[in-house]
Amino acid sequence: MKQALRVRTEGLRKAEELSISVFLRFVGQSEKATWSLSHSGEAELVLQALDAPAAPAGAARLVWVADPDAPAPADGKTLLRRPLQVEVFGALLRGHEEGIAAAAQAIQPRAAVPRQAAAEMQATYRLTRWPGDDLLQNQRQRKILASFLISRPLSVAQLTALSGVGREACTAFLRELADRQLLESRNPPALAAGEAASAPPPAALAAGGLIGRLRKRLGLA
């Protein structure tokens, strides 16, 4: 059964609100949900201008909207760059739907995951600069992935859920970014003492070692 979900805007320009209303006609429905625009009250997703007053507290997921050259927000939340694009907006909706589904599955009992495997799954990746046209290859999916990776660190699972792009395509793109040294990675915090002792020394963070470890984390080596 489809869910009825709402998106609300806070501090956006009138033209942007109109664009979102039009976008919803094209990408507002999926197999899992039907989205509608709400101008007040509760909503599952809030799009807020980065320079607008703080949104009311609540369970809604907050996504910032900012100019192309605006710095990324310090809170690490998802950032949409102006001008708004229907493909990226649609990917955002699909990602939120996947997040709701994942939350529902989280209550199901799962087999224990080894500590090291869990750490690898939680590693996050972020673009250090925008890729060249040779990497984007005029592909809409790659532009969507780059848009998410430039705004915040994301794990492979998060990138897949947010973008709506398949895991295989995400990992292939990440591998190419790593080969061009356009990607930085972050390990999950609080390694156990034994793991910290066995961690590679700082010299191992040279470009070649970084690429090799990225490939291993992504299951491509």
Structural class: alpha/beta
Percentage of residues assigned to helices: 40-55%
Radius of gyration, in angstroms, nearest whole number: 19 Å
Shape: globular
Largest sheet strand order: 2-1-3-4-5
Give the count of helical stretches.
9
What labels describe this entry?
221 residues, alpha/beta, two-stranded antiparallel ribbon, 9 helices, 43% helix, 16% strand
Structure description:
The protein is α/β, with parallel strands linked by helices and 221 residues long. The chain has nine helices and seven strands. The protein has helices spanning 14-27, 86-105, 115-122, 133-136, 140-151, 156-163, 167-179, 193-197, 207-217, and strands at 3-10, 33-38, 45-49, 61-66, 79-81, 124-127, 183-186. Strands 2-1-3-4-5 form a five-stranded parallel beta sheet. The protein has a two-stranded antiparallel ribbon with strand order 6-7. Strand 1, helix 1 (14-27) and strand 2 (33-38) form a beta-alpha-beta unit. Helix 1 (14-27) crosses helix 2 (86-105). The chain is globular. The termini are far apart. The relative contact order is 0.11. The model is unreliable at 190-210 (pLDDT under 50).
Short summary:
By secondary structure, the chain is of the alpha/beta class. Helices cover 43% and strands 16% of the residues.
Topology:
Elements: E1 3-10, H1 14-27, E2 33-38, E3 45-49, E4 61-66, E5 79-81, H2 86-105, H3 115-122, E6 124-127, H4 133-136, H5 140-151, H6 156-163, H7 167-179, E7 183-186, H8 193-197, H9 207-217
Parallel strand pairs: 1-2, 1-3, 3-4, 4-5
Antiparallel strand pairs: 6-7
Helix pairs in contact: 1-2, 2-6
